[in-house]
Design a protein that fits this description.
Length: 316
């Protein structure tokens, strides 16, 4: 078996606008025609990462471990359509929810790709295609780190995973330890919140980072970093009030699509809100973080920020 060299791919500019078309053979022959692809990184709830093994007949990186799903767009196909098709064909998955992470240009001696990167959390059954793959399995983050640079993984997976996941994970790991040391022994909750939001803001470079405290049946602005903000938010109102009401973290890829979003700043594009619980289980505050970019926050942010606010109960 081998790839169909006559498949027609769209040719795009770096913004993703289609400007022409070419065959697979032309795109992979050193012409460096920029063509779009979709990638999906599949995590389970334990944080392990599913990798597929490329078969030996592949014309690019045969026999190496690669991103769970990767495939080219057919001419006339959108990235969203291509992603659904490729995931179904390669892993047999249909009931998954992808999150768009970002896009970038990958270059090698043979090709140039505009890569649309997605991730999902999935614990269902995975059925790797026997025709397209040589199987697959979940890898721990440590296994991936140890395999890097040893010719086991594809170069584009290594660079992409480092860029979108390992760098963020490492930042959060160091930030968590910094905050743990910073607040140890401190009993004043306002002082703790002030230093926690400052540490997060400086380390991660978010647009707005702060706390709203539960006071008298509403959320009242607490310590924060960034431009001026709304001072009072009602129960169940906006992202913050909804996170309080539902007692769970809310990730919003596009704030304009969230019903009842409270626009403290027109520059905010995406948001994550994490409830802070006291020792007896009451919501005492929410941690609110905004970004100027769409779809900034994912389950990595959720996991680590929930861990960070979990440290605060000792001061409540």
């Amino acid at each position: 078996m081998k790839d169909n060299q006559q498949e027609i791919f769209p040719i795009v500019d770096e913004q993703g606008t289609v400007i022409g078309k070419a065959t697979r053979g032309e795109c992979h022959s050193g012409t460096r025609l920029l063509h779009p692809v979709v990638h999906l990184h599949v995590f389970n709830k334990q944080g392990d990462v599913y990798l597929q093994k490329r078969p030996e007949w592949k014309d690019i990186q045969p026999g190496k471990w690669d991103t769970a799903v990767g495939g080219h767009l057919d001419y006339g196909e959108t990235p969203e359509e291509a992603l659904r098709r490729e995931v179904r064909e390669e892993l047999g998955m249909t009931d998954f929810t992808p999150s768009f992470i970002g896009k970038y240009v990958f270059e090698s001696q043979r090709e140039r790709e505009l890569v649309h990167v997605h991730r999902t959390i999935y614990d269902g059954e995975i059925q790797p295609s026997k025709e397209e793959l040589d199987g697959g399995r979940f890898w721990t983050i440590q296994e991936i780190r140890e395999a890097m640079g040893k010719g086991v993984l594809t170069p584009n997976f290594e660079s992409e995973f480092q860029r979108f996941f390992l760098e963020k994970i490492e930042k959060y790991r160091l930030l968590t330890e910094q905050i743990r040391a910073l607040i140890e022994g401190e009993t004043d909750s306002v002082a703790v919140m002030a230093n926690v939001c400052a540490a997060i803001h400086e380390a991660m470079g978010f647009f707005w980072t702060g706390f709203y405290r539960v006071q008298g049946g509403e959320l009242v602005l607490g310590p924060f970093q960034g431009p001026v903000a709304c001072m009072h938010i009602g129960f169940g109102r906006g992202v913050c009030g909804t996170a309080w009401e539902q007692r769970q973290t809310i990730v919003v890829p596009d704030v304009e699509q969230f019903p009842g979003h409270i626009a403290c700043s027109s520059l905010s594009r995406s948001e994550i809100v994490v409830p802070v619980f006291s020792q007896n289980g009451d919501v005492i505050a929410v941690l609110d973080i905004d970004s100027k970019e769409l779809a900034t926050f994912d389950d990595i942010d959720r996991q680590y920020l929930e861990g960070i606010v979990g440290l605060l109960y000792q001061t409540s």
